[in-house]
Amino acid sequence: MAQFTIDKTDLRILQVVQADGRLSNVELSERVSLSPSPCLRRLKQLESEGYIRGYAALLSPKALKLGLQAFIRVSIDKSVTARGDFAQAVRGWPEVLSCFALTGETDYLLHAFFTDMTAFSHFVLDVLLSHPGVRDAKSSFVLDELKNTTALPLGHLHGETMEVFVEQEGV
């Protein structure tokens, strides 16, 4: 099986698509200066090779009355069972958008949204700290969002800075 290598045109497609995943193939092909058929073929190959994981609508927490954004550092028991149980549980907590296993003093970092302090308190006291294996949780609240993007940097793939085709607004 031949190894797939992305070129500058593929990088342009990735950059444009990650800024606006709702573009039609015709609009995408125009933005990357490629005719529609080869553009679609390249896009499908980028999807099948795993460069594009999926497409999603980015919702506004503010509009949805989720005004309290928190980062929660969690320490758990060091057993394999505790780690597995925690990983399974965190996947079922809708408040938690992402969870990262970390090096250092904290085992996990949760990024979560809540309607208010009451909802946050309920989550921490009744869900998180009551979970077996969780030893401690420390929280920080977001005061201001300076940058929030889903766009990954791509310039390193060909050792040069990529021209910006589409600006993405923080959501």
Layout of helices and strands, plus pairs?
Blueprint: H1 8-19, H2 25-31, H3 36-48, E1 68-76, H4 80-90, E2 96-101, E3 108-114, H5 117-128, E4 134-141
Antiparallel strand pairs: 1-3, 1-4, 2-3
Structure in a nutshell:
The chain is an alpha+beta fold and 171 residues long. The protein has two domains: 8-56, Arc Repressor Mutant, subunit A, CATH 1.10.10.10; 61-141, Alpha-Beta Plaits (2-Layer Sandwich), CATH 3.30.70.
What fraction, in percent, of the residue positions are helical? 25-40%
Question: How far do the termini sit from each other?
Answer: 40 Å
- Using only CA atoms, what is the Rg? 20 Å
CATH topology of the largest domain: Alpha-Beta Plaits
Q: What's the SSE pattern?
A: HHHEHEEHE
Helix count from the secondary structure assignment:
5
Number of domains: 2
Pfam family, one: HTH_24
GO molecular function, one term: sequence-specific DNA binding
Domain HTH asnC-type: 6-69
Keywords: DNA-binding, Transcription, Transcription regulation
Describe the structure.
- This protein has 171 residues and is of the alpha+beta class.
- It folds into two domains: 49 residues, Winged helix-like DNA-binding domain superfamily/Winged helix DNA-binding domain (Arc Repressor Mutant, subunit A, Orthogonal Bundle); 81 residues, 2-Layer Sandwich (Alpha-Beta Plaits).
- Helices cover 32% and strands 18% of the residues.
- It has a four-stranded antiparallel sheet.
- Strand 2 and strand 3 form a beta hairpin.
- The longest helix has 13 residues.
- It is elongated and about 55 Å long.
- The C terminus is likely disordered.
- Keywords: DNA-binding, Transcription, Transcription regulation.
- One of its GO terms (biological process) is response to amino acid.
- GO terms for molecular function: sequence-specific DNA binding.
